[in-house]
Amino acid sequence: MNIPVIDTRPTAAARLDGKVALVTGSTSGIGLGIARAFAEAGARVVLNGLGDPGEVERLRADLAASTGATVHYAPADMSRPDSIAAMMQDLLDRAGGVDILVNNAGVQHVAPLDRFPPEKWDQILAINLSSAFHTTRLALPAMRARGWGRIINVASAHGLVASPFKSAYVAAKHGIVGLTKVTALETAEDGITCNAICPGYVYTPLVEAQIEGQARAHGLPRERVVRDVLLAQQPNKRFATVEEMGAIAVFLAGAPSITGVALPADGGWTAH
């Protein structure tokens, strides 16, 4: 029996040659996967995120060399509106603004609501939600002037459903879904789309660390931690990959009639 091989490389319709794509929180994990997908589709990519400067430069150079794309790095602190504004002004001055904006930066903290540290609440709301407001408001004028723009917000399954002990994260991700819809409505006649991707668990180094930590803490084998703890809510019982998230982002960038959507990529989690 011949099993068809699916070619996931960008088609001509998905090419984004010359478009400037800013991906926040893209020095690792989902953001890096999305940045790589845009680079492979021909976009000029701007990385943003934390990390040792030397490691970040090696990452930037490797991404440029392996894809042939132009890759820059913007070290803006996504918890600070003034730092975000400086980054967006620099991109406006150097490149005429951002064509594709991916709001991916995020942090997490887990604690019961009555013991949730207020400073953690403020940090999570600032990075996971408010930063997307600031980048979006500053990107829109140039997008409107060109009559073309794509805004992709990386939300979460937790933008659609809730889990205990994640009050700030769930509130922020629900807020991102709401911001996505408002942005889509306000830009619907301007050649701009705004959509949210709502992943379940995506396999990244941070998730691998969670697996190891849970296994040690509870004395459970790795396979049981994956299936019965982390993926308890995902019917397909598999992690998504950063490459999948990148492919979804490139698809949305090439889909002018899709806007205002919160797209689950959660293995059936929110189908319950």
In brief, what are we looking at here?
This protein has eight helices and seven strands, in the order βαβαβαβαβαβαααβ. It is of the alpha/beta class. The radius of gyration is 18 Å and the shape is globular.
General description of the model:
With 272 residues, the protein is of the alpha/beta class. The protein folds into 2 domains: 14-202 and 240-271, 3-Layer(aba) Sandwich (Rossmann fold), CATH 3.40.50.720; 203-239, no CATH class. It has helices at 29-40, 53-67, 81-95, 118-146, 167-186, 205-218, 222-230, 242-253, and strands spanning 20-23, 44-48, 71-74, 100-103, 149-154, 192-199, 262-265. Helix 1 (29-40) crosses helix 8. The longest helix is centred in the middle third of the chain and has 29 residues, at 118-146. Residues 1-13 have low confidence and may be disordered.
